[in-house]
Amino acid sequence: MKKSKNIFILFYFIFLLFIFLTLFNNICKSALFDSPPALVDKLTNAFESIKGWLITLATPAAAVAVGVGVFMKKFSFGDEERIRVAKKLIRGSLFSYAFILAINLILSAIKSLVE
User: Fold this and answer.
1) Residue 94 and residue 63 in contact, taking contact as beta carbons nearer than 8 Å
2) Nearest to 114 by CA among 39, 22, 21
3) Is residue 65 within 8 Å of residue 93, measured between CB atoms?
4) Which of 18, 63, 75, 101 is deepest in the core (most CB within 10 A)?
5) Are 24 and 42 in contact (CB under 8 A)?
6) pLDDT per residue over 1-17, tens digit each?
7) What is the pLDDT of residues 18-35, one digit of tens each?
8) C-alpha span between 110 and 114 (Å, rounded)
């Protein structure tokens, strides 16, 4: 339980850092400087590439998880526990993938509002 809490805090911190850097980058572009500082620009580009890689990796991972759940349900041969686990796996992977896509949409909306 403690490990999952630490992972959640780490991802939350990275998410907030990404939002802060995006906002700071846009503030620096518009008001303070002609161009943003090099470090902020590099970090913003790094986080955008990480976001792209996560979405690229999440799509096949979700497909594999749903496929495993479908096969587990198909070959459960009436075992109620396996059917329950398969349904949980399918539901969890679909919700996780939808959450990842929603985060992408939210970040895009924040970025368009700030610019």
Assistant:
1) no
2) 22
3) yes
4) 18
5) no
6) 567 777 777 778 777 77
7) 777 676 666 555 555 566
8) 6
